[in-house]
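Pasting as-is:
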Amino acid sequence: MSIHHTYTYGNFVLLRGQPFPFGASPVPGGINFSIYSNYATSITLVLFKKNTPEPFAEILIPREFRLGNVASIVVMGLDYEDIEYGYRVDGPYAPRAGHRFDKSKILLDPYAKSIGGRGVWGETPRDNDIYPYRAQVIVNDFDWEGDRPLEIAEEDLIIYEMHVRGFTCHPSSKVTPAHRGTFAGLQEKIPYLKSLGVNCVELMPVFEFDELDNPRHNPLTGDRLFNYWGYSTVGFYAPKAGYAATGRSGGQVQELKTLVKELHRNGIEVFLDVVFNHTAEGNEYGPTISFRGLDNKTYYMLTPEGFYYNFSGCGNTLNCNHPVVRNFVLDCLRYWASEYHIDGFRFDLASILGRDPCGIPLANPPLLEILAFDPILAKCKLIAEAWDAGGLYQVGSFPDYDRWGEWNGKFRDDMRRFLKSQGCLKDVAQRMQGSPDMYGRVGRRVSSSINFITAHDGFTLTDLVSYNEKHNESNGENNQDGDNHNESWNCGAEGPTTDIEVNTLRRRQIRNAIALLMVSQGIPMILMGDEMGRTQAGNNNAYCHDSELSWLDWNLLKTNAALFRFVKSCISFRHAHPALRSREYFRHQDYMGSGYPDISWHGVEAWHPDWSDETHTLAFLLCGKHAQAGTAQDDFIYVAMNMHWEPHGFQLPKLPPLMQWHVFANTWMQPPDDVYEPGTEPPIAEQNWIMVGARSVVILVGR
């Protein structure tokens, strides 16, 4: 930094800045601002006092202060706690050539660590605000009290996918009223998460986004609709101010860090759902917020005519494998890992990250490779949603570099088909082993498969067994939105019913789904509220509803107490048995000399599975002496699955002398006899066979 006070602006002394790091950083006596633009002809720093409509200074950054394509400046005498800043960037407006500069717009710094202007969820911004999203300057002085990422072994994870606002917004959450729908509210519910047994929360997008950018209204009620899920990022480095109880006063950074620290203190990892495939600027008709006005040609994939490729389904696609954009993504993830102690990232529509600037899939995508081998991210879990809206489906073939896991969409689909008696048993067997047919090649791990039956995008588990068709009329899109391929089954009646048999079957099907998920190899993920029977009334795309339709109704804990007990017990069972959390793929051999292979498949007759297409019965046996490749001893575990509409007797494999079969779960039985606490399982009266009811699952423990 130069010590010569060559430039002044009013009472401010201006110095040549440091080009790195990008963004705004406090330095002794002032603030360093650094911003990149390849094609800009001039860049002006615009300064506001916090919460004031007009700037108090607009400082043209001298050409001498530019190094390469980076403009940097130090403004002495600024109080970082009292200012907000943006940029005016001039350059050519030539859309066919990819340029959309507009000096009349004040642009958000892509590296802004905090964003003002939207501190309260749903609050309408000022009319005609010349700069609605305001970059703020922060100091990284949070006291972590020795906290660090937990680094839980991948195979030991149980992920709980959740929406920050929806988790505690309902009055029944009983969190402090001012904390409903916030990071602070979630923190109050950590004891609940701990009691459930999950050890990882995956937060749907928490980067700053505009919840008000949905123009539609609910045609059934007239209520306005929202961008509730948040998959439309405004600021990649800034936590959502509207998710903070302290957002109005700018406390979102501290509040989120406190949440992470407290989750870690309770043994729970934190994953972020990150959206690097597109931004909130949309297509050529969308708003100019940041990237478009800074360097449109660099940051976005453009057609030869200068329009936006739309592999995201949201109007634009980030040019992720451009070196500048690639570095931006890397810098961002490093920041969240180092400054927020984030344990892992789930990448929305991650197949886009492997496309070249023209949208062609790359064999060796530079961004995916650099993220896999980055030394700072080395212990972070990386999870891909291995498809995009442009038709690129890479489940099982995502470029993984021995690091990436995948949301296993085939597990979801195959298990859903099996639950409604339409599945191929050979496919089911592969999914429950961690999908070795997809991930079993050299270098990939069992934990490459993130197993789920439901997620935020689609039916809840209750709705999966209650509706044959989606019911999205309240979204205002004539029920045209949302996936039509749900593999759901309403069990005999569409939606709520008073039919006792239908409701009994639905409850059993929910328990079947949870049981199968928790005894499958790989990393299980459950959706917020499925453990207590949350419903969205058949809406499989509730992205726009900030209402009781999407909020978690905590009264369900009482209404569906038996379901909660079942889910909690299944989670405990998984934690208790290393045989269910293998690090290596099964060999189907007895390499420990136990007299049993590590896994064996069975049908209604022991040791003789029937793989024919018309069969709906299957069982498997895990030998605990093979658990974790022999590093831990476990019991025998036998799982019998009958998805036939009639009961079947299953012959049981014989155990070694002095051992007996004990029943952990039997979904045919009515609560409380449907499940037992691990370690308290009673022995079964008949040790040679067991009757498995229609459409039910039995889990036995041999000890």
